[in-house]
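Ticket #4471: structure export looks truncated?
Reporter: QA, pipeline team
Priority: medium

Steps to reproduce: submit the single chain below to the structure queue and open the exported record.
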Amino acid sequence: MELLEVKELSRNFGGINAVNSLSFEAKSGIVTGIIGPNGAGKTTVFNLISGIYKPTSGVILFDARNNEGLHPDETVKTGIVTGGVLCNGKLVGLRPDEIVKTGISRTFQNIRLFKRCTCLENVLIPILQRKKCNIFSALMRFGKAYRIEREATEEAMSFLSVMGLANEAKRKAGTLPYGLQRKLEIARAIAARPKLLLLDEPAAGMNPDETLTLVDLISEVRHKFSLTILLIEHHMDVVMNTCAHIVVMESGRLLFRGTPDEVRRNEKVIEAYLGKSK
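Actual output as written to the record:
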């Protein structure tokens, strides 16, 4: 079953078509990769899904089939959602923080941590956003507020442990080596408890050993937290070893989509992205 469906999605910046009539799906419970040359429009797609940009045209359907019997195809026929985002079966014009609450979380191509905060504090932020407490008990730090803080800290430490960062909990995020900052950003993203996790070049800047570890880590978090993952990556070892399905983009358009084996064998992909065969 598709958790995410992108239908005829376009985004124009002046006279530039960054994304042009793109359609693809991300099935529940698997890792779907998006690959393509620099400038293909991959990160723009993530920015559209996460609400940073609004579509020029087309639709994004998220978790629509599980809400009140709504079928995306029936909705699209009405034309109501053209240029909009449908989250949890309802047409909304959500801000990025509101989209996170519907079940979509992401990392960024350029790491965006709170670098002066500790690793623990970075992961606590999305956890505390999910919990409710009145301002009086929060200021006085007693009763419900104290219990929420304790539980949130334990939960945050569990996410850090999954990423191998438990011993770095009190360390300032900005002092971590680059590879560990990548892991911390993933920990913060999954701390939001998403259904769909968007990973934008998670292996960027990692050495070969760190990249191999990342492959296992992506598989682990997918199983442990029952995630659907959409992955942008230039490291083909990561893509081929983690993704069940791959979407190939070129100049904002869909070039090809299929399994890793199908992508490896496709001549258009070889020529446009992997290198022209000799």
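Status: closed, not a bug. The export was complete when the record was re-opened. Leaving a note from the reviewer for reference: Residues 1-103+194-278 form a domain with the Rossmann fold fold (CATH 3.40.50.300).
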